[in-house]
Design brief:
Helix content is 41%, strand content 15%. The termini are far apart. Helix 3 packs antiparallel against helix 11. With 390 residues, the chain is an alpha/beta fold. The radius of gyration is 21 Å and the shape is globular. The strands form two sheets. The chain has a seven-stranded mixed sheet, with helices on both faces.
């Protein structure tokens, strides 16, 4: 007997890219002090008021099956939020509630891709993107972006790989780079998508974490609402990562297909979590700004500490809870730098190579520890980098 080939196909037969994280976890369990800047996880957990709303709902008996695309009240609240932010008319019928953004990405690709299809995604990428695509039986094809372009996708690079493809997955604000795609970039993406008749899957889970510029959803561009599927989540905007509540906003035919898939996989999101999400959304923009504020501060700390460095070039970080650092001046790869930094300074960052070939020679820093500890980590990281210069 053997395991199904699709499992090996998901990983592509290679590393999952998280070796530094595993090594760091083992060091911490052994009692070592490590400043950990690896995972995009809030250091301040879910607000007690949200947990109290979840508790009230559960104690009221909302603990049974949650069959379907989600409670209409929650779907309507998500639709209203999306419409207010994008200006695109959005009905509750366009919304499917999912167990987190990751499930939304998987369900969307399952609904749009058949085995053997080609599905595009940008490189660098969040670590699960290629595996999510391959889990459907489709072939994941990376569209390279470049450090010199601040990792903004170029229309020509997309078009060069789009023949015969079904979908393109983008992510703005971006993990791992912290880059926010500007309107000109999105218009180029939209032209390529329309020219090659692609579905555009837009991962927008960091849309409340904008430090410079403006978040533009591609659904708002001319001719794009009917071919764009937007993915959102409560994880980043409301520090509800463990609650696993996300959503898909899509044309009704796609939403119905995703709901059919949910019936045969997740069976929906628990009602008491949906009620907590509805409560959280009703707290408004000021609440979301408070959740985002620590990452804005730490981004400013990183920019200040690293300004003028001869060893590090900071990729312009306009959003999300990360900064990407170009450390190629040291002569080291991202893997070499991250491992040496952990060994010498007990500071853990993610190698750029964990997120694809395009980010080789870079490291990703998560803005996810207290301000004073984060500044300490940045000062020590900068000093370490300077000492590596040839």
């Amino acid at each position: 007997m053997k395991i199904a080939d699709r499992i090996g196909h998901i990983t592509g037969g290679g590393s999952d890219g998280w070796e530094i994280y595993y090594r760091t976890s083992a060091m911490i369990e052994a009692g070592e002090r490590v400043l950990t800047l690896t995972i995009g996880e809030h250091d301040i957990r879910t607000d007690p008021s949200i947990l109290e709303a979840m508790h009230r709902s559960a104690m009221a008996g909302n603990t049974g099956y949650a069959f379907g695309a989600g409670k209409q009240t929650l779907r309507a609240a998500i639709a209203d939020r999306v419409e207010a932010r994008t200006g695109v008319a959005t009905s509750w019928r366009n919304v499917v509630v999912t167990p987190g953004g990751q499930a939304a990405l998987f369900a969307t690709h399952m609904a749009l891709c058949d085995a053997g299809d080609t599905a595009l995604h940008c490189d660098p990428y969040y670590a699960t993107y290629p595996g999510t695509i391959r889990a459907t039986g489709a072939h994941a094809v990376a569209v390279p972006t470049h450090s010199r372009d601040s990792f903004l996708p170029q229309e020509a690079e997309i078009s060069a790989r789009a023949a015969g493809a079904k979908t393109l997955l983008i992510n703005t604000p971006n993990n791992p780079t912290g880059v926010v795609y500007d309107r000109a970039t999105l218009e180029g993406i939209a032209r390529a998508v329309r020219a090659h008749d692609l579905w555009l899957i837009s991962d927008e889970v960091y849309d409340t974490q904008i430090w410079q510029g403006q978040h533009v959803s591609p659904r708002a561009l001319p001719g794009m609402a009917d071919r764009t599927i937007a993915v959102g989540s409560m994880s980043k905007s409301h520090a509800m990562t463990g609650s696993r509540l996300g959503w898909v906003v899509a044309p009704e035919e796609v939403a119905e297909a995703i709901n059919t898939l949910a019936t045969n996989t997740t069976y929906g999101v628990p009602a008491y979590i949906q009620d907590a999400a509805l409560f959280a959304l009703n707290q408004g923009a000021e609440f979301e700004e408070r959740i985002a504020a620590p990452f804005r501060r730490r981004r400013e700390i990183a920019m200040r500490v690293l300004e003028g460095s001869n060893a590090i070039r900071v990729i312009p970080s306009s959003g999300a809870m990360y900064v990407m650092l170009d450390i190629r001046a040291t002569g080291m790869s991202g893997n070499e730098f991250a491992n040496a930094l952990l060994e010498a300074e007990r500071i853990a960052v993610m190698p750029g190579e964990s997120f694809g070939a395009a980010a080789a020679g870079h490291v990703r820093v998560a803005l996810t520890i207290a301000d004073e500890l984060f500044e300490e980590a940045m000062v020590r990281l900068a000093g370490f980098a300077e000492r590596q210069l040839p």
